[in-house]
Amino acid sequence: MKKIEAIIKPFKLEELKDVLNEAGITGLTVSEVKGYGRQKGHVELYRGAEYDVSFVPKVKIEMVVADAVVDKIIGLIEETAKTGKIGDGKIFIVPVEEAVRIRTGERGESAV
Amino acid sequence: MRRYAKFIAIALMCGLLTLFSSSAPKAETASDTVPATAVEGQAAPAGVEAPAAATAETPAPAEEAAPAEEGPTAASNAVAINTVWTLLAAFLVFFMQAGFAMVETGLTRAKNAANIMMKNLMDFSVGSLAYWAVGFGIMFGADKMGLFGTSGFFLSTGDPSTGDGLWQLAFWMFQVVFAATAATIVSGAMAERTKFTSYLVYSVFISLLVYPVAGHWIWGGGWLSQKGFIDFAGSTVVHSVGGWAALAGAIMVGPRLGKYTKSGKVNAIPGHNIPLAALGVFILWFGWFGFNPGSTTAGTNLSIATIAVTTNLAAATGAITAMFTVWVWFGKPETTMALNGALAGLVAVTAPCANISPLSAIIIGAVAGVLVVAAVTLIDNKLKIDDPVGAISVHGVCGAWGTLSVGLFAQESYGGVNGLFFGGGAGQLVTQLTGVVSVFVWTFGTMMVMFYILKKTVGLRVSDEEQMEGLDVGEHGLEAYNGFQMAGE
Question: Quick one: which of A4, A77, B50, B361 is 20 to 30 A from B241 by CA?
Fold first, then answer.
């Protein structure tokens, strides 16, 4: 099992969610985050004082999937979330040691 | 230590009461004062012809005003109109408390929102009682040496069985909302780092003593009014008093944690809700139609029409020139400064509103809009006096400008005197300057002393940890926005 963490532009979330559902993903976790990569923030003036807008709002999607589908999902995310402009985001793959479904106690790939 | 502060306040009250004769209703004295105030102090002085004549008699209803058996007379109707108008205006000015609350919370951080609400709630509540007990008497009571009043404490003149007493009740209602306006100006300048108990003590003190004394000089028949000083609705009495008290408070409490770095850099601490700030300004603008036109205390005085026009034009122009000023200086038309600009225009026109033409109001508002941006830049960024909402700039600085502008723009056809630009010479201007300076000295002086005492006794400033956590939790044990994860520093 692998955990796929994707940081994407917020307005891409709805589209990506639909695409992932169609691909058979059964669950995911979404959080609102802020950050920057090479898309640096900029400086504004609030009442004459400098105000660093370094962080850009993003959305982080996390999902745990079976090894077999990892590449397919990465491809879907790349395709859907891409705009071609700076700030499109990143995808990280992290190995998952174990997964448990709380309701039934199932473990392993049947739990995701 | 905390107890001392409360005892000091109570002792002060008792001391004042024993010193002055808090005697029986001096209906005659009060009624002598009231028409003088309505005509000279807060109304257009002697200028407006026919309506003024009506004004001179009606605000102090004589015995014949009671329409017992015969039914209403023209005179009693006039009294009724004036009473209704004055009370309606009072209710509008009361609503400005909501305006102040919204402006202050919109321009400060979410973690301190409940604290801002408490300070505004208490400014009015505590102020009402302080002004009822002592303040009103000092402001409008029998004059002593032109400096303060000595009668009418505990609203002793408010005898509901006489026409005059009823007028006193209406007049008190009108005056208390003005007092509360001055008091609540300070809460914005001292926001986000002031101990609540210390703030309460301040609130008693300003409504009990500092504001009423200045008010007596100008509206209560005191020495400034005797000199011919004009402050129709309170650019100095209300706004400068609030503004200079705010200056003293902001200096004494010090800046917010993280506002200024040791290297002298100024950090922006943006407000958390600009829509609330804007709502607050709109409410204040609306309430100001009670503040300025209401200060005729006479609905039969149709200069309320002129005053409404000058009030509105100054506000609008202030917003516009503030917007352009900040656009040119800082690159973008920043919303909070434009909002402050509207308020600046309103504050500035408050003194001259009954004595000037609409065009003059536009000029006065225009200058105020530029002035407020300059003042905020100077005070916040150069002098490093942290004023989160610009209260000192809006109320202190523009209050002074507005007061002086009477000496420039007053026109006899509107209000009975001519300012410098209309052939009246510099006399009025000098009088206005005298008032501005003397009220500054009185207010800033007493407030610096009071805040200093508070600082050294119960403490004025909350701890750094509490500032980081937020005063909502630290001072009041709750969160304004419970359940929302606040992305703040």
Answer: B361
Q: Which residue has the higher pLDDT, B472 or B38?
A: B472
Distance CA B212, CA B151 (A): 13
ipTM of the complex: 0.76
Mutation site, B107, B109, B256, B266, interface A, largest A CB count within 10 A: B266
Residues A82 and A6: their CA atoms lie apart, in Å, by: 12
As a whole number of angstroms, the distance between CA B87 and CA B80 comes to: 11
pLDDT of residue A36: 85
Tell me the CATH number for domain B25-62+79-472: 1.10.3430.10
Q: How far is it, in rounded angstroms, from Cα B241 to Cα B178?
A: 11
Which chain B residues are closer than 8 Å to A49 by Cβ?
Answer: 266-268, 380-381
Using a CB-CB cut-off of 8 Å, the residues of chain A touching B377 are 47-48
Q: Does B145 touch chain A (CB under 8 A)?
A: no
Per-residue pLDDT, B28: 34
Domain range summary for chain B, segments of one domain joined by +: 25-62+79-472
Which one has a higher pLDDT value, B245 or B48? B245
Residues of A in contact with B329 (CB under 8 A): 48
Q: Where are the domains of chain A?
A: 2-111
User: Of B268, B331, B487, which is closest to A47 when you measure between CB atoms?
Assistant: B268
In angstroms, the first-to-last Cα distance of chain B is 32
Q: Which CATH architecture has domain A2-111?
A: 2-Layer Sandwich (3.30)
Among A44, A48, A51, the residue with its CB nearest the CB of B381 is A48
**Long-range contacts for B119-124 (Cβ within 8 Å, ≥24 apart)?**
B119/B184, B119/B187, B119/B191, B119/B196, B119/B199, B119/B203, B120/B184, B120/B187, B122/B199, B122/B200, B122/B203, B123/B97, B123/B180, B123/B183, B123/B184, B123/B187, B123/B203, B124/B94, B124/B97, B124/B180, B124/B183, B124/B184
pLDDT for position B162: 93
Q: What is the pLDDT of residues B45-75, one digit of tens each?
A: 333 333 333 333 334 444 444 555 678 999 9
Taking each helix axis from N to C end, the angle separating B241-253 and B427-456, rounded to the nearest 10 degrees, works out to 30
Q: Evaluate if pTM is beyond 0.80.
A: yes
